């Protein structure tokens, strides 16, 4: 749009890098909303760097027109004997309008009034202050003697409309024409002549305002440095975003470390470089780690050799520590740490890691057939349970908590454990989030499922709940992990999640009706998280997944059942089977559901339904195709039954028998799908 060019800048102490992307997006939303509410047509772009929050663009010279209706006195008060009264004239005089602007609506005078169109220079500062006040902050702080709060102390402000500096005060700081360059190369003030000259002033001060531009500069510079070494800079979008949010004028540089450190497991070296130093590791063409890294300096390339040597010295100390921790860990096998788990509290309400291990051992032993594991997989699962938390007691994981599980897998391989066990240890914390994959192996999937069900059952029993956005114990993540393993994994469960959750509750000494109630709550929580996850991604009907999870007798792999159900649901027969289920569900009085003995003198329709229910429903227990063909045959048999017999027969014995028959038919239809959820 054609309009006046403007720019607003809020200068701050260094903003936390992790907040910068979200803060930028929220700032843009707040500014656009505030300008719209202020009736200023504007084009807005926003940006942020570690030391500044910026909004700029074009804006209309004046507010947009606004006509509002003002209600005045009633007709009886406005006119007397057909002539305007003092109330009438006072109403017009107060609004500054003539008689032509007034009409009668529902017995009252109503005037249409044009709101004043204030100039942009008067409205813009107020609108930006409103935007700043509406900005949601993840956390805030106070500084100095004032009451203002922001993520970091505000040190300067700038607001220009064309070449005019507008009066604006932010957190007690008066806006002027000065901005500041990056702290290293241009710490002093830079005068900005006009809004159009703002970009040139930042370039003079060695500030690259665009986050995307900083990321591109780091990626391109790092790539050139790596190629010169015959290596490749490891791609890490999250690290790239973080580093770009730490600097205002990125200058990549190449550093090296001694090859002897390559004897330390690669994840430890990578964690030292990325986690502690925010370096980008380099790799050889075959994917192996190269003894070098790309770091990023904030500022121009002067004294870069000195910067490189300093960073290499810091990393050398980090790697020396990592090598020491690794060597210390290898002095004894991973399994030797199992007794020490009794000294580590898992949760104040759920006991120690040793307590959790013993619960999981019992649950794993009980769940072998329920999860469809063969004998070797069951052995591997038991071993994985014993070793799963042992790496939490190692020096490396104490120093690098993000390597929990990963180091367990590495140490297990070094100790000669089975590959399935080592891989299960590595994958036990997956999925870490909605975008993360579930474990690849069946043993790992079983470990994740049982571990999460143990946690969820214990939380339910001990009264640990999620509340709004609060979930300090990660229960939502645990529930989603359990649900995704069931739906996406390769397990062939012969027991419903309800039964597995009930067994988990028994690990806390809660069984019987109370244990089943806990299991129902856990199952509902898992289903809710899974439904939300699938709804966000589309392509899978969340209600269909819920119906499969709620079925009392799973038929093998949930993934296979979901594929079958998605195909079957597209056929007309699906609606017919659902219809007869609902009919059976409405009639059944919630009494018995066992198939009764039907005497020879019973009506033919009753005998035919009993025979259909007694007939095989497939060639095997998990023959979904056979069950589906049987269910379709059952539809006319149920319809004929209801047409031919009176279920609520006057004879109590006949009524009870027929009600049991209805219950048995209903239960048979529920086996693979809980139709009540559709």
UniProtKB/TrEMBL annotation:
Q: Which GO terms describe its biological process?
A: glycyl-tRNA aminoacylation
Q: What molecular function terms (GO) are annotated for this protein?
A: ATP binding; glycine-tRNA ligase activity
EC no. given is: 6.1.1.14
Query: What is the protein's major site of localization?
Result: cytoplasm
Origin: domain of life: Bacteria
InterPro entries this protein is in?
A: Gly-tRNA-synth_bsu, Gly-tRNA-synth_heterodimer
Indicate where this protein resides in the cell: Cytoplasm
Query: What does it catalyze?
Result: tRNA(Gly) + glycine + ATP = glycyl-tRNA(Gly) + AMP + diphosphate
Keyword annotations of the record: Aminoacyl-tRNA synthetase, ATP-binding, Cytoplasm, Ligase, Nucleotide-binding, Protein biosynthesis
Q: Does the keyword Signal apply?
A: no
Q: Which GO terms describe its cellular component?
A: cytosol
Q: Does the keyword Methyltransferase apply?
A: no
Q: Which HAMAP family match?
A: Gly_tRNA_synth_beta
Subunit description? Tetramer of two alpha and two beta subunits.
The family annotation for this protein states: Belongs to the class-II aminoacyl-tRNA synthetase family.
The name under which this protein is listed is Glycine--tRNA ligase beta subunit
Q: Which organism is it from?
A: Candidatus Hydrogenisulfobacillus filiaventi
